[in-house]
Specification:
The protein has 314 residues and is α/β, with parallel strands linked by helices. The chain has one domain (6-310): 3-Layer(aba) Sandwich (Rossmann fold), CATH 3.40.50.1820. 40% of the residues lie in helices and 17% in strands. The chain is built from ten helices and eight strands. Strands 1-2-4-3-5-6-7-8 form an eight-stranded mixed beta sheet, sandwiched between helices. Helix 4 packs across helix 8 and helix 5 (150-167) packs antiparallel against helix 8. The longest helix is centred in the N-terminal third of the chain and has 19 residues, at 90-108.
């Protein structure tokens, strides 16, 4: 009987503010991992979507941890709670959960290097986390990152605030969600789903569209938390004093409308460069928003593996 190459577990952690959230870990079963990747997911998805990538990593001796955000995945628990977050502490809770998971990994595996990878909304959380909690990690990966102009951020937040005023913070506004997704989707034809911007692979888009844990309409409170978090991250990035030698990879798809077709990745790179970060890598690859679910995802897997391995020996 063949021994499984990895060991997958789902469990719950409790944050210092007593919020219970779900975690998925996928670890090599035959050996101690050389490194661990903490992946911070994006909005309207769940950690289970990254099993293929995690299995690839464990096959090369790298462990994987990821938490489901409030209102997502096993943290939400049931479909009726998808997209719902705290009206006042939504973003703070996501940030605190990230810190709690990082602390858990460090306590369980104190001698193993930890990389952090944030995808999409998770890249905003990763940047904010690294600014307010100057922890020691082996490297930071920003996948599918984006920049939001201050004027657009204020307008969006005002719109959602008004929606909350009239329909309630827990309401999932069909109009605003369709506007949010539709703005990204308009760049692609045909458009059989709202999620053509995810990937150029039909099967990947259909799998996302048919997964009840993905692409759901988020509440007004969620969007308020998101826009509040982006603003807080932008403010925290103005005066970064933490470890300027930190290896930092900025990864984007050249056909990704979320990141302005690779242009936002370049802007983010320039911001870190101006703050004298010394170990920056910018990589724009063929594909749309989710390079880990693209036609050439194998190349992306190996690129990320090689980048992490390259920063394990330094």
């Amino acid at each position: 009987m063949e021994v499984p190459s990895h060991n997958e577990q789902s469990f719950f952690l409790t944050s210092p503010s007593n919020f219970r959230f779900g975690v998925t870990s996928i670890m090599p079963s035959r050996e101690k991992p050389r490194a661990i990747l903490l992946l911070i997911t994006g909005m309207a998805e769940h950690a289970g979507r990254y099993r293929e990538f995690a299995s690839f990593l464990t096959g090369h001796g790298i462990g994987f941890f990821s938490a489901d955000h409030p209102g997502q995945g096993i943290t939400a628990g049931k479909q009726s709670k998808y997209g719902l977050v705290s009206k006042t502490r939504g973003w703070e809770r996501m940030l605190e959960n990230t810190r709690s998971l990082y602390t858990h990994i460090r306590k369980a595996h104190p001698e193993i290097p930890v990389f952090i990878m944030g995808h999409s909304m998770g890249s905003v959380l990763a940047r904010h986390f690294m600014a307010v909690y100057p922890v020691y990690i082996q490297g930071l990966i920003l996948s599918g990152p984006f920049e939001t102009p201050t004027a657009l951020l204020r307008l969006s937040k005002t719109m959602v605030w008004m929606l909350s005023l009239f329909t309630g913070s827990k309401s999932n506004s069909n109009w605003f969600n369709k506007l949010f997704y539709g703005k990204l989707n308009r760049h692609f034809k045909p458009r059989p789903t709202l999620f053509e911007w995810i990937s150029s692979v039909r099967e990947e888009v259909d799998a996302y569209d048919s997964d009840p844990g993905c692409g759901f309409y988020c509440s007004n409170a969620f969007y308020c938390s998101l826009f509040t978090g982006i603003a807080a991250m932008k403010k925290s990035q103005h005066n970064l004093k933490y470890r300027k030698t930190l290896p930092l990879l900025i990864l984007s798809g050249q056909a990704d409308p979320v990141g302005n077709f690779g242009k936002d990745a370049l802007r983010i790179h320039q911001k870190f460069y101006k703050q004298k970060f010394q170990n920056l890598t910018l990589k724009v690859m063929h594909g749309r928003h989710e390079l880990l679910h693209e036609a050439e995802k194998g190349k992306t897997f190996y690129y990320l593996l090689n980048w992490m391995e390259g920063h394990l020996t330094r």
